[in-house]
Write a structure and sequence with these properties.
Elements lengths: L1 H14 L10 E5 L1 E2 L2 E2 L4 E6 L4 E6 L5 E5 L4 E7 L8 E3 L5 E7 L4 E3 L4 E3 L20 H33 L6 H19 L3 H29 L4 H23 L15 E3 L2 E3 L1 H23 L1 H11 L1 H6 L4 H27 L5 H16 L4 H17 L9 H15 L13
Parallel strand pairs: 1-10
Antiparallel strand pairs: 1-6, 2-3, 4-5, 4-7, 7-9, 8-11, 12-13
Pfam families: BPD_transp_2
Subcellular location: Cell membrane
InterPro entries: ABC_transp_permease, BCAA_transport_permease, Ig-like_fold
Amino acid sequence: MLTAFLACVMLSFGLGATSAWAEGEALQGTLTNNGAPVAGVKIKASTQDGAPAGEATSDEQGKWSIPVTGPGTYKVELDVASLPSGVGLTNNRPVLPTVTVADGQLRNVLFPLGAAGTTGGSGNNQPGTKTEGSSSFDRVADLLYSGLHFALIIALAALGISLIFGTTGLTNFAHGEMVTLGGLITFLFNVTIGMPLVLSGIISVAIGAALGYFQDRAFWGWLRKRRTNLVTMMIISIGLSLLIRYVFLYFFGGESRNFADYNAQAGVQYGPFLIAPKNLIADGIALVVLAAVSFALVGTRLGKATRAVADNPALAAASGINVDRIIRLVWTIGGGLAALSGVILGAFQGVGFQMGFQILLLIFAAVTLGGFGTAWGALLGSLVIGLFIQLSTLWIPTELKSVGALGVLIVILLFRPQGILGRRARIG
């Protein structure tokens, strides 16, 4: 409840009480040549099976927009013949075959223009945008990087939820809303207030960590003291998740929006990989944070105390460890990690009121696959899920990629129910 209250205050401060619902999905962009708008250029979109999805022509400001029928993956093509004389694509890639549109998202697509005949290392703001003539190796390389990037986003949230489960036994379905909160707070400070994205992200992570601490102190800790059973607490977390999600919808609206900074950033070619610099920096931050938390769990006294509480809370308390303090620390770390996951996810695909809920099942899949309550298991499970989701599109339709990942989860758990790194538990 505390999380919902603070979220309402912060969102209403910057966004106002608006109840706008989703306006629908669309592909959009702005064509410019050295800062000058380029008008009259034709853009068309189609679905992955080749069905036309719409077309548009850039206006006097260089802007174009193609409403699409729903979320999914589309192919977007710029008609090179319609470009003005002397203007060309600097990356020689008029066809973007894998542009993903989320539910309610207004997806920005970048076609970098310059003097005809020039080339440069640039591309769309998301990996996986090669021409139809690209080799299958290039497509695999793009999907491999995209899978690793998505795996790091999942891993940040999965590590937090795994630590919380390991120390309290609670399966927290409201954790996805902490991911969403990270993206929304960053949007509030970056877009509404006008702060730089990096500073907005740092503030968001700090607020996420603080809310993690206070929600355990004021709510979950109180339920533990009343000896509320774990099934009841899990059901409460589901209700809390629904409440917070619709609070977000009321204040933020149903449409997907983008941060003000690094919105449609051109990609840079690194060998076979086409990577937007913002994604590369986000990957570095995620790796450093994951490594720091993992090291702290192994090499510090607090980490050892956390592992002791996860193994046997009663024995840990008898040996002088303040169990409530350790659990509160875990909630603080979990809240900060979830918020950071939301910041990176928002920069990757845009911010929406249910962005955390949309990946919650994948987070649980990663934690379950790696082994519930194990930090290393959460990281390994996230890597498997992230890579399989992207690479599976080489053989199955894009719309089924999450289904395929969950299918692999079921198959693995049939042979190893405790997960890859989980320990067998005696029942009865």
